[in-house]
Amino acid sequence: MIRKRSIKKIAQIPIGVLLMIPLAASSILPAQAQSVNTRPGPSDSWLVSEAFSPPNRGAPPATAEGGTRGCGNYEEGAKALTPLIPEKFLALTVSEHPTFFWYVPGASEQTLEFTLLDKNDEEVIYQTTFAAPVKSGIVSLQLPSENVEALKTGEMYHWYLVTICDPNDRSGDLFVDGWIERTEATMELTAALEDAQADEIPSIYARAGIWHEALASLAQLRQENPEDSNLAERWQQLLNSVDLGEFSEEPLVARNQSTQE
Predict the structure, then answer these.
(1) Distances in whole angstroms, Cα of residue 46 to Cα of each of 37, 68, 92, 199
(2) Any residues with CB less than 8 A from the CB of 244 and at least 6 apart, and which?
(3) Which of 61, 116, 131, 135 gives a 20 to 30 Å CA spacing to 122?
(4) What tens digit of pLDDT does each residue of 161-217 get?
(5) pTM here?
(6) Residues 9 and 115: beta-carbon distance below 8 Å
(7) How far apart are CA 261 and CA 255, in angstroms?
C-alpha cells in the first residue's frame, strides 16, 4: 500500500524516517551473528544451483509502510520502486562496505535519497542523494569506504531509499526501507572463495546465504559480459529463488550521483 509521508531533515535524519521509528524499532530481532548455511563439501558442490539458500537467521524485522510509487513523471509501464532483497529472510553481508540494489522506475527530474541508520534508527551512518534514472532499471549503490565507518560484525542496520518528488515540498516523498546485517564469513566460505574462479563466486555466496555479495558479484559479471545468456539465466534463477523474478529482465543501469552529504 502506498502511503505519502512528509520528510524533512532534522539532524540529518528525514522526519519521515523519524516518524517510522516506533514501528520499525519495535520489531527488531536480537542483532547477533549467526552461522551461515555453507554446507561444506567438494568445491563443485558450491555450483549445483544459483538459487539462494536462506541463512539460519530467521525473518527480518518488519519494514515501515512507505511509498513505492506515486510522484508522477514515471516511464510508461514502469513497476513500483522495489528493493532487491529477500522478503522472508534477513539480507546478510560479509562486507564492511556492501552494495545495495533497487529496481527504480524511470523518471525525469527526480532525486533519490539513501539513508543508512543504526538498528535503533538513532545514528546516521551514511546519507546521500542521487538522480533517479531516466530509464527504468536496477540501480546499485555501494557504501563508500572513504569517510564512512565499516559495518560492524553482528550488527543490524536499517536503511531507507526515499523518492523526493519536490525538494520544496517534501509532503509527497515516498520511500522503501529494509535491513542488513554484517556477519563473519565462516572458515568454509573463506576457503571456498580463495579457490574460486570469478564466475563461481556468486554461487558460493548464494549457497552460503550471503545475499548482498551473491547479488553484487553476479551483477558485476553481467555488466562485464552483457551478451552471456548463461549469466542471464543464473541471474533469473537467483531472483526467482527469492520471489523477485519479475525484475530479472530489467537492465542494470548506471547511477548518476548528483550530490552527497
Answers:
(1) 12, 35, 18, 12
(2) 82, 84
(3) 131
(4) 999 888 888 877 889 999 999 999 999 999 999 989 999 999 999 999 999 999 999
(5) 0.79
(6) no
(7) 16
